[in-house]
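Protein modeling request. Please complete all fields; requests missing the sequence field cannot be processed.
Requester role: graduate student
Desired output: 3D structure, token encoding
Chains: 1
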Amino acid sequence: MTATSFDEAYEEVLAANWPAGTTYSQVTTPYGTTHVNSCGPGDAPPLVLLAGGGATSTVWYAQAAHLGRAHRVHAVDLIGEPGRSVAGERPIRTVTDLTAWLDGVLDGLGADRTALGGHSYGAWIALHHALHAPHRVRKLVLVDPTQCFAGFRPGYLLRALPMLLRPSAKQTRAFLEWETGGAALDPAWLRLRDAAAGFPSGRPVTGPRPTPEALRGLDVPALVLLAGRGRAHDPARVAAAAARLLPRVTTATIPGATHHTLPLYGPTAAELNRGIADFIADPGADPGEAESGDLIG
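Delivered output (297 residues):
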């Protein structure tokens, strides 16, 4: 698909799903210009959200209005991924580059200290940034995080491989149909996801999981929300590892969710919203010792 059709699909999701009063900004960093969609009271505490690979920042539409009641929500288009961010001359090639880029984004948003959340690959970035700059992260929210506490299931990687090797709208649709069990995802967002399959993208920064030593030293309250029916990894294994490694963590499972119905699918988005809102509500709250459980809608 053309850039024009991508832009049209992007705008359609914003117009159809994001709340009135949503604003758009371009944040200049050493790595390029980062596009941010923002909503909520301008003087409210910030919440910065990072999407999974290929999803664009618009995927947070089901959270925008709910979490924007008490926070200034900033959803970020990742540089090198489909979206409206534009890479600069300095490429993002390492985890150090990623964390420096996000520092620049937070500086541009005036978010000296923020709640920080991410889904999938976005959660991996958020976790690495919390390890890099824990003083800047008030609360950390990891939604079905990948490559943070456990690896992918082999079957998931095999299914994803054709989509990665020869990305197309057809491959993407087939993969989402399989992983979500045929859930009726938002049509406007699916059209944007189709367009994203043909979007010129850079090579994403990947790497090993954070070391156990680094995770045990992370003194930031964290919430790990997992998809009970997800196929990307074993949610019980991820929850157990997070509880074992993070000193200030709460883990919870959303029973009906899959990796790709989060964070946007209506029947599970309400549970996700409630879990995130409760966790980030009190600036001084401390989850204390590790807790785990299900979120029941």
